[in-house]
Write a structure and sequence with these properties.
Strand content: 25-35%
Low-confidence stretches: none
Number of strands: 13
Shape: globular
Radius of gyration: 18 Å
Mean pLDDT: 91
Helix content: 40-55%
Structural class: alpha/beta
Length: about 280
């Protein structure tokens, strides 16, 4: 059986990797200054942060239409028997639910939706794992079993410079945002049961980043090999420096550098930093 792999734009997989592994990507939308853009298609991350820096109304985001997924699944049915479609956390977007609904609308291909319960390149690592397995001839059932195993070892923590973006977008409660701003803390955030929740309140950016590394070190001692990704919101230089500092201490951890693109960047804001990982 031939298995196709689909994801959405918030995995932030580079185009060359998508082409190499035959990964199909469905974009989410960013509405900015009265215009609607397809993320990763006609709005680059650099252009997004440049535009946001000019001020004006905070951008809005929107999930793909169910029909977009259904059309793609029907197209894939001509050459594939099954689809594994992997999406950002169902607790922060309706994208996963839309893919499930679309899968129920098509007749000639079996669609298996996977809720990554996370986003960005950590979601992308699930997608790459699935795509490699699919190329090797794995069935959807085998791929999903592997992804669920990896999910048990997946962690991600991130910090933002301004909690107001998350609060205005409804991803963090008003009370949590106000308390964080009043105390001038840099709360570490993570996903709990598909939603974004505070993990710890930390006073400075430097201490917050050190705390994330300490959490990675704990897991790096549990597994022979770990794959990790540093994710930044328009702070590439800082991300590279951070990678150089911590990779020397953790020889069994392989690192990528990725970014918070327009959709996720809308809710986190420029300057955010994150680190996610899972076992290899």
């Amino acid at each position: 059986m031939r298995t196709a792999v689909v994801t959405d734009s918030t995995a932030y997989l580079p185009e060359e990797l998508r082409e190499m592994y035959d990964i199909r990507m469905v974009p989410l939308y960013v509405i900015m200054n009265g215009k609607t853009y397809e993320e990763e298609v006609d709005l680059t991350t650099d252009a997004f942060y440049d535009e946001v820096r000019k001020g004006g109304a905070l951008p809005k985001t929107s999930q793909p239409a169910v029909g977009t997924f259904a059309s793609l699944f029907e197209e894939l049915s001509e050459n594939y028997d099954e689809v594994v479609t992997i999406h950002l956390s169902s607790g922060i977007s309706g994208t996963y639910a839309g893919a499930v609904q679309a899968g129920e609308m098509v007749d000639d291909i079996k669609v298996h939706a996977f809720d990554s319960e996370i986003s960005c390149m950590v979601q992308g690592m699930f997608v790459l794992e699935a795509a490699v397995m699919a190329k090797e001839g794995a069935t959807a059932e085998e791929i999903l079993s592997r992804l669920n195993d990896l999910k048990e070892t997946t962690r991600a923590y991130f910090m933002v410079d301004n909690l107001g973006h998350l609060q205005r977008g409804g991803r963090l409660s008003n009370a949590q945002a106000i308390i964080g701003s009043m105390l001038q803390v840099k709360p570490l955030l993570h996903f709990v049961d598909t939603k974004i929740e505070p993990f710890e309140k930390i006073r400075t950016r430097k201490k917050a980043m050190k705390r994330i590394v300490d959490l990675l070190k704990e897991d790096a001692q549990k597994y022979d090999e770990v794959q990790a990704v540093i994710i930044h919101a328009n702070r590439e230089g800082e991300a590279i420096q951070w990678k150089n500092e911590i990779s020397a201490e953790l020889p069994n951890v392989s690192f990528r550098i990725s970014h918070f693109g327009p959709v996720i960047g809308t809710h986190l804001g420029e300057g955010s930093m994150g680190l996610g990982w899972m076992k290899k």
